[in-house]
Every structure is written in C-alpha cells, then in structure tokens.
Amino acid sequence: MPDAIHKQLQNDREWERLLDCMLGLNTLDRGVFRLLAESSEPLTVDHIAKVIGKERTTAYRSVKRLEAAGVAVQDQESCPNGGYHHVYRLADPDEIADALQRMLNQWYADTGQLIQEFRDIYGTDTPSETLH
Fold first, then answer.
1. 56: number of Cβ within 10 Å
2. Nearest-5° Cα angle at 104, 70 to 108
3. Mind listing the pLDDT tens digit for each residue in 38-96?
4. Are residues 46 and 102 in the same domain?
5. Which of 107, 90, 95, 43 is nearest to 51 (CA)?
6. What would you report as the CA-atom Rg of the chain, rounded to the nearest whole angstrom?
7. Is 67 in the same domain as 3?
8. Beta carbons of 79 and 85 less than 8 angstroms apart
9. 130 and 83: one domain?
10. Which of 14, 32, 50, 110 is at 20 to 30 A from 41, Cα to Cα?
C-alpha cells in the first residue's frame, strides 16, 4: 500500500477514535456517521438500515445515539401522497468541531482542578503520617 494512502487511512482512524472517546460512539455508530457524512441528501432510517445491512430498529438506535451526541440532525420531509417521514443528516461540521472543542476545554479545566486537589492533599506540605 502506498505510504500516502496508508497515512490517509491512519488519519481517518484517528478522528474516528476522537469521536469514540469524546462521544462514546461504537463501530456501528461510526459507520452510520460516515454514511450520513458521505450522503449528499438526508437519509431515512429504512435507507440507512438497508445500506448497513441491519434491522430498522438497530439503525434507528444508532441514528438516535448520533442525534443525542449532537452529530446528526432529524428533519421532517413531506411525502408526495401526503403525510411526512423523518430523514437524518449530519450536523454542521463546524458546530460539531465547536462542541468537541468545548468538551475538551471543560475536560482540561476539570482535570486541572483534580490535579490541584491532588496537590493540595498530597503536596510536600502534607505531614508524612497522612501518606501512610
């Protein structure tokens, strides 16, 4: 495999790991995310289920996890013969990136506070008998 292709595949896996870590996505969710990202138009759950080769309820649960994570959006489309159905599309990538950045900033702040609490409890000014 040429180095450029291998590197691109590696980069794809890296951002997928970011989604896994920060949003709790699983393999199926990543596949549905990719499907929504590559589609030029919103997709129905039935279409998603057919493409991923899973039952409709499985596809629906995955889409709902993506929606809850803020990376998929539900829209309503009118049917030609009346009524409507729901379709799903990827949320705005800039909004997703902004949300990930906010999550990272919050994690950084929370982790900094935990480190300071650790320092306050176990720092060099702490009597040695409390460490035993």
1. 13
2. 150
3. 999 999 999 999 999 999 999 999 999 999 999 999 999 888 888 898 999 999 989 98
4. no
5. 43
6. 22
7. yes
8. yes
9. no
10. 14
